[in-house]
Each structure stands twice: as structure tokens, then as C-alpha cells.
User: What shape does this take?
Amino acid sequence: MHVSSEGRTPREINFAGPNADFLLVANQDSDTILTFAVDAKTGALVKRQTIACPTPVCLLELPL
Assistant: This one.
């Protein structure tokens, strides 16, 4: 399966959430972070949100 990052220069990807429910993609040269929901059974990605962020280069999940 191929899913577009919908941006230029995908710099980093990271799973997030208590059960790796989401995949985050930082597009460095288009100033966006995309969030995808991850289907636990199939692994399919569903785009959820695009977040504006100047030159994202690193994604970290911080404990709550």
C-alpha cells in the first residue's frame, strides 16, 4: 500500500497514541504535519488532519 504524505520532503514519521493508533508525518518543505488513523486490523491509513507547522523536522510523543 502507498499513501501520499501530501507534502514536500517528508522528514520524519512517528506512531502515536496508546496503541499506535495514529501515524504522524512531518513534511519539512511544505510546512505541514499530517495525522492518519491506523486501522488496527488491516493497517490501512485514513487521513485525519493537516496541521500547519513551520519547517517540522522531528516528531516526539510526550507522556501525559
